[in-house]
Amino acid sequence: MSDRADCPSEELEAMLHALGALSPQQRAALEKRRPDAALDALIASWEQRLTEIALEAAPEIEPPAELWGRIEATLDRPAQAVEELRVIRFDQAVWEPWSEGLAIKVLTRDSSGAPSGFLMRMEAGAVVPAHVHDCIEECLIVEGDLLHDGRLLTSGDFTIGRAGGVHTPMTSPGGGLLYVRYLAA
């Protein structure tokens, strides 16, 4: 180890890092050097040793008897328990860029966090590339137009695509707003 108190050795730094005992400045300085394989291995070694010590020192705790019942009750509920009425204000959800000329505003997500219901804004001439669906897709043209397989769809038109179905490229000649919903197959 170093004799200088203000310049700890890498061994000491690695241990303090694993303990979470470095100041934010010290941590940042060490992280800049972390791509060094030897330093990274030293930190990993200290993290492993300290984890083992912590696990040995931690007492075994018996979970409360009613815990499993609470877990089962939660699992039996629908994946997304919906209140009587859930309101999503149009100005509260944000538009997320999806691809060139396309943006989506997510309204609902499935249990994995993927969008399951969303608005899609298409600029004039924007193209949705060809793709395959692993679920059923419902699409309502809210405003504007959508050209799909040579058919021009306009406001109020509704499509249903089957799971496994292939969408050829789609475009919106004049721009449009779509509501899209994915359903389990």
Describe this protein with a few key phrases.
185 residues, alpha+beta, Jelly Rolls, two-stranded antiparallel sheet, 4 helices, disordered N terminus
Q: Topology of this protein?
A:
Elements: H1 10-19, H2 24-33, H3 37-57, H4 67-76, E1 96-99, E2 102-109, E3 115-122, E4 127-128, E5 131-132, E6 136-148, E7 151-154, E8 158-161, E9 166-167, E10 170-171, E11 176-183
Antiparallel strand pairs: 1-2, 2-3, 3-11, 4-10, 5-9, 6-7, 6-8, 6-10, 6-11
Helix pairs in contact: 1-3
Can you walk through the features of this model?
- The longest helix is centred in the first third of the chain and has 21 residues, at 37-57.
- This protein has helices at 10-19, 24-33, 37-57, 67-76, and strands at residues 96-99, 102-109, 115-122, 127-128, 131-132, 136-148, 151-154, 158-161, 166-167, 170-171, 176-183.
- The protein has two domains: 10-57, no CATH class; 96-183, Jelly Rolls, CATH 2.60.120.
- Helix content is 28%, strand content 31%.
- Helix 1 (10-19) crosses helix 3 (37-57).
- Residues 1-7 have low confidence and may be disordered.
- With 185 residues, the chain is of the alpha+beta class.
- Strands 1, 2, 3, 4, 6, 7, 8, 10 and 11 form a nine-stranded antiparallel β-sheet that branches. A two-stranded antiparallel sheet has the order 5-9.
